[in-house]
């Protein structure tokens, strides 16, 4: 909606450190996006309401307020994709951000290609959700992996892989939000219901079993990767 | 708890003495046997219970039962037996004396234990202090070198950008990246070290699936060192360990990084996770030049000692390995290194499997 006349997407970079903000902006520019910057929460709110960017890149550590507040505030009125930038070791921050409605996160220090890939995925995801009115596709393909929701079937190449009901549910959830991190808590709530114990061990043992059936080498997963301490992500393509 | 233990113990000794007396009386008909037997019981009770009460109670009961059950007339209490008061008094005297000795002995043992604990604590403190000192020395040296490199390279670019080729600029920028990357690793190690140093309570142990950590570390190593080849092997069985995720991840990455940087072999690095009895064991193998020391402690000691004149090559190895060692130590595991028969070295650490997953 807010693409400018050249068809370029605008991205709001909320970051208080100038040198980080600078290098992010020049990366965005060279990759065909139009960057906007805000160095604190107040500015960020102003830019958000006045420019309506296509994506927000949000550093959680802002001088005037907690970045999580911005996520809450934005989610009251907009589904614009938000990618959180956070420091390593602050896994709980990432989980909170995702549970509040952030779409993805990236950990400092990050590489440029990683940053651009995350932005592309988030934008594509947003387009898919906005575009197709019915929302859900019948099948999802990721490389050799095909998940057929209608037949509840999972194929790797020509081989059908059999899963237990729980394992299939996990795969289906990840496939429906392919490219996106789903937190342990989200998956547990979806599969075992809202009153399930928040202990994520059963989920993780299930995932280890899924990998043994799905992946060639479970230690080098190609389809579903672990975001340690946060959740799981099904990789696109 | 203590009262129960003392009472049961007293009752046991007393009952034993009682039945021994019954048997002896029945088989020999000799009445003088019961007194020494009960004295032994009273001494034992006074020795192994706390305070005076149990010994005295046992003495009173002994005096009564000797009179009542083991001296004529049986099943009757009489004061007319000759020498009976003397027996009574000796019982109480024996009991009090033994109880007093026991109490004093206990107090001394407790004092000794406290003293030992204090000594151990002091030793630990000095050890901690020494580690911290070594750490700080290593850090200041290690920080200066890459920072000098970064400043130098960026100054060259700023001041001479019109005179040097684009290729040279890229080269300088690559150096900056490498140095900064190295600094980040260093900071991660430092954070880990302070997390352990702070308090043992600071490490947060949770049940984790070991292979996920290995996968993550290998992924990170591959993107950091794209020109090296790392093979991974995990067991069919799912290994669950109770650990601090961030810290163990650090160890796994450090060991892989060491192999890449210091073994002289980037082609045959192999990472293996396996189960050995009730341990999960992680190994990094290489086919490089091996380590010139018989064990990991010697290796770390040597690297730490040579920090001052350390070359670029060994920079950071000491901090990395000694951090690994401390992390594994607070997890109650083992860390070792050895040379393999067919060349190369293996670095290995093991952690106890989470209890409910040992079957």
Note the topology.
The complex is a heterodimer of chains A (237) and B (359).
Chain A: E1 9-14, H1 18-30, E2 33-38, H2 41-51, E3 55-59, H3 67-75, E4 82-87, H4 91-100, E5 104-108, H5 112-131, E6 139-142, E7 145-148, E8 153-156, E9 159-161, H6 165-176, E10 181-183, H7 184-192, H8 201-214, E11 224-227, E12 231-234
Parallel strand pairs in A: 1-2, 1-3, 3-4, 4-5
Antiparallel strand pairs in A: 6-7, 7-8, 8-9, 10-12, 11-12
Chain B: H1 2-28, H2 34-48, H3 53-70, H4 84-160, H5 166-198, E1 206-209, H6 210-224, E2 230-233, E3 240-243, H7 245-262, E4 269-276, E5 279-285, H8 296-305, H9 317-330, E6 334-339, E7 345-352
Parallel strand pairs in B: 2-4
Antiparallel strand pairs in B: 1-3, 4-5, 5-7, 6-7
Helix pairs in contact in B: 1-2, 1-3, 2-3, 2-4, 3-4, 4-5, 5-9, 6-7, 7-9, 8-9
Describe this structure in words.
- The complex is a heterodimer of chains A (237) and B (359).
- By secondary structure, chain A is an alpha/beta fold.
- Chain A folds into 2 domains: 9-131, Response regulator (Rossmann fold), CATH 3.40.50.2300; 139-234, Winged helix-like DNA-binding domain superfamily/Winged helix DNA-binding domain (Arc Repressor Mutant, subunit A, Orthogonal Bundle).
- Chain A is built from 8 helices and 12 strands.
- Chain A has helices at residues 18-30, 41-51, 67-75, 91-100, 112-131, 165-176, 184-192, 201-214; strands at residues 9-14, 33-38, 55-59, 82-87, 104-108, 139-142, 145-148, 153-156, 159-161, 181-183, 224-227, 231-234.
- Chain A starts with 8 loop residues before the first strand and ends with a strand.
- Chain B has 2 domains: 2-112, no CATH class; 203-359, Heat Shock Protein 90 (2-Layer Sandwich), CATH 3.30.565.
- Helix content of chain B is 63%, strand content 11%.
- Chain B is built from 9 helices and 7 strands.
- In chain B, helix 1 runs parallel beside helix 3.
- The longest helix of chain B is centred in the middle third of the chain and has 77 residues, at 84-160.
- Chain B is elongated, with a radius of gyration of 35 Å.
- The model of chain B has no long low-confidence stretch (mean pLDDT 82).
- The interface between A and B is medium-sized, with 21 and 26 residues.
């Amino acid at each position: 909606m807010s693409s400018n006349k050249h068809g370029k997407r605008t991205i709001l970079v909320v970051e208080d450190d100038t040198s980080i903000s600078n290098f992010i902006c020049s990366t965005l520019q060279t990759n065909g996006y139009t960057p906007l910057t805000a160095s604190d929460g107040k500015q960020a709110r102003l830019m958000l309401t006045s420019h309506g960017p296509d994506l927000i890149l949000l550093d959680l550590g802002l001088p005037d307020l907690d970045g999580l507040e911005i996520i809450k505030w934005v989610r009251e009125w907009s589904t614009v994709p938000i990618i959180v930038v956070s420091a390593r070791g602050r896994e709980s921050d990432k989980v909170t951000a995702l549970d509040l409605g952030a779409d993805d996160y990236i950990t400092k220090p990050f590489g440029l290609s990683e940053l651009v890939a995350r932005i592309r995925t988030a934008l594509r995801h947003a387009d898919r959700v906005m575009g197709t009115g019915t929302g859900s596709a019948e099948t999802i393909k990721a490389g050799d992996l095909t998940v057929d929701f209608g037949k509840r079937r999972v194929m790797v190449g020509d081989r059908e892989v059999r899963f237990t009901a729980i394992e299939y549910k996990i795969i289906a959830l990840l496939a429906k939000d392919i490219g996106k991190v789903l937190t342990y808590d989200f998956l547990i709530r979806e599969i075992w219901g809202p009153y399930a114990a928040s202990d994520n061990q059963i989920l993780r043992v299930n995932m280890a079993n899924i990998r043994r059936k799905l992946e060639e080498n479970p230690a080098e997963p190609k389809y579903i990767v672990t975001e340690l301490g946060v959740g799981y992500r099904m990789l696109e393509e | 708890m203590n009262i129960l233990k003392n009472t049961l113990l007293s009752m046991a000794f007393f009952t034993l003495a009682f039945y021994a007396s019954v048997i002896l009386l029945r088989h020999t008909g000799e009445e003088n046997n019961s007194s020494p037997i009960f004295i032994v019981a009273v001494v034992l009770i006074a020795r192994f219970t706390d305070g005076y009460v149990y010994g005295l109670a046992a003495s009173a009961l002994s005096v009564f039962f000797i009179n009542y059950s083991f001296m004529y007339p049986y099943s009757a209490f009489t004061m007319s037996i000759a020498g009976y008061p003397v027996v009574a008094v000796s019982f109480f005297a024996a009991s009090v004396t033994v109880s007093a000795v026991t109490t004093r002995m206990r107090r001394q043992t407790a004092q000794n234990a406290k003293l030992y604990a204090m000594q151990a604590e002091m030793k630990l403190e000095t050890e901690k202090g020494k580690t911290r000192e070594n750490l700080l020395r290593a850090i200041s040296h290690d920080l200066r070198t890459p920072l000098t490199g970064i400043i130098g390279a960026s100054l060259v670019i700023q001041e001479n950008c019109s005179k040097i080729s684009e290729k040279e600029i890229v080269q300088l920028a690559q150096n900056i990246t490498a140095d900064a990357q190295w600094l980040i690793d260093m900071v991660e190690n430092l954070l880990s070290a302070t997390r352990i140093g702070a308090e043992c309570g600071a490490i947060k142990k949770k049940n984790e699936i070991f292979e996920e950590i290995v996968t993550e570390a290998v992924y990170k190593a591959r993107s950091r060192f794209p020109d090296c080849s790392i093979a991974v092997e995990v067991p069919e069985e799912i290994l669950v360990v109770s650990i601090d995720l961030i810290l163990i991840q650090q160890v796994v990455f450090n060991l892989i990084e060491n192999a890449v940087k210091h073994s002289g072999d980037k082609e045959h690095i192999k990472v293996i996770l396996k189960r050995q009895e009730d341990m999960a064991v992680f190994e990094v193998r290489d086919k490089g030049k091996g380590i010139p020391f018989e064990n990991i402690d010697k290796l770390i000691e040597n690297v730490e000692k040579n920090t001052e004149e350390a070359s670029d090559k060994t920079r950071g190895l000491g901090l990395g390995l000694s951090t690994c060692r401390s992390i594994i130590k607070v997890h109650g595991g083992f860390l070792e290194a050895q040379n393999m028969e067919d060349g190369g070295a293996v670095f290995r650490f093991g952690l106890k499997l989470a209890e409910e997953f040992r079957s």
